[in-house]
Amino acid sequence: MKFNRYTLPEGKYRAEGAAKPLLLTVSSGLLMSAGFPPLSLSWISWFALIPFLVSLKYTSPGKGFLLGIVWGLSHFISLIYWIVWVVGYYGGLGTLVAIWPMILLCSYLSVFPGLFGAIAAPLSRRPYPAVSLSAIWVSLEYLRANVLTGFPWCLIGYSQGSYLSLIQIADVTGVYGLSFLVLMANLSLTGFLARGGSTGVLARSLETAFTAILIFSAMAYGHERLSRFQSGTGTPKVIKAALIQGNIDQSVKWEKSYQLSTIEKYISLSNKALASKPELIVWPETAVPFFLQEESELSQRVISAVKMGGVFLVTGSPAYRRSEAGLSYLNRAYLVKPEEGLSDYYDKVHLVPFGEYVPLKSVLSFVNRLVPAAGDFESGASLSLLDLKGLKAGTIICFEAIFPDISRKLIHNGADLLLNLTNDAWFGKTSAPYQHAAMARFRAIENRVPLLRAANTGFSMIVEATGEIIAAGDIFTEEIIEGEVAIGSYEKSFYTKFGDIFIFILIIFAILRVSCLMIRNRVNNQP
Fold this sequence. Notes:
single chain; Nitrilase/N-carbamoyl-D-aminoacid amidohydrolase; 6-stranded mixed beta sheet; 12 strands; globular
């Protein structure tokens, strides 16, 4: 009989009917969302996938795919519901219409757990499935992060932000290593909960022991890295910084009549910050709501304030460049020096699709008519660094903070610290600002450099190379966030040097495992 491997042996677990596996799968997706900010129940992620995995244990690949889609929809809708707010309020579409772009994106993202479900259905009944299935899940996460423009928002590993020792492993494996550990734990526990008698006890015991060894090894490694930082080995340079959180209302931010009051607020807060004698002041993304490159009265106010204060300023500003094709608009971060005025700059490289530009514009030109707020920016030409008098700063603007490879390349190219300029006012009082800040924090750990994050409405924060947050503001408040960070506390991390080699190994392993499964199926189905 063909496909008899999908027939449930007597005495095994079976999710009776259609309702039970669906309910288990939906609950699993919701539980996993609870592991992320703002709830940040990191512990729940270690078993949140079990109901979904149990539902896959004795089903067909087709049904496994559908269950994966259901898991993805329940998880992603509860995780990124804030898209309705962004598109509905600031895009001017209204809530009822804005629901559909959110559903469309969540449906696309759900394809990846759907593929996992299709593969896991037959593979979960093979010996030692935990390593194979963990590798496949993480490979699909990497695919989600890089296919088309990529959307690596809240990968499973980010749910572990509450455990400082554990997340130190990110300087070797990146966030994907944490995703792998969480999957291994869920799969090992599932093996016991959905077991069939004494069959496979040794295999399940070995997998569980192996998982425990991996987790405790990661914890021990993290403890060693934290101890090394706290012992103060080496002679790091200390830089004192002040982050200015202006809390400018997004609904009036770009109105010309508010430009002067916006700049005066940032200058006033910066002057107050001078009392603590910072070496660097950082304003958020597009804190300057006009073209700072033009010789206008407003531009001169900013430059004069920097000269009077005698402190370096990094600020966000829209910019443009002229070419034969016309004007190109850019999302820029400027370095303003007391002696030179406008100096170095960095242009945002990875733009937000449908926010800062419309992909496939010739085909999707109607988007601009539907969503007036859709921008028309162009990507920057290179990952340029800002020269802070002997120190180099790598800048990541807004959405770029969730793409690990951008930060890695900046540090690999010689940056000593990371600056994250962002304007999260778009998100309102949803979960998005919490999630965005949590992901940005991982860039410090991966590359073993401090991170200074200036956000218009929060969360602004100063993060050590260990990921420890030493100073942070609140959300939708006007604040000055001050602190000192050590530069050069660590050598370049393994992740900075070699990038995603860990995930590449997992991808190769996953491809081989799936290929073996396909060959075995073909052989078994031959008459």
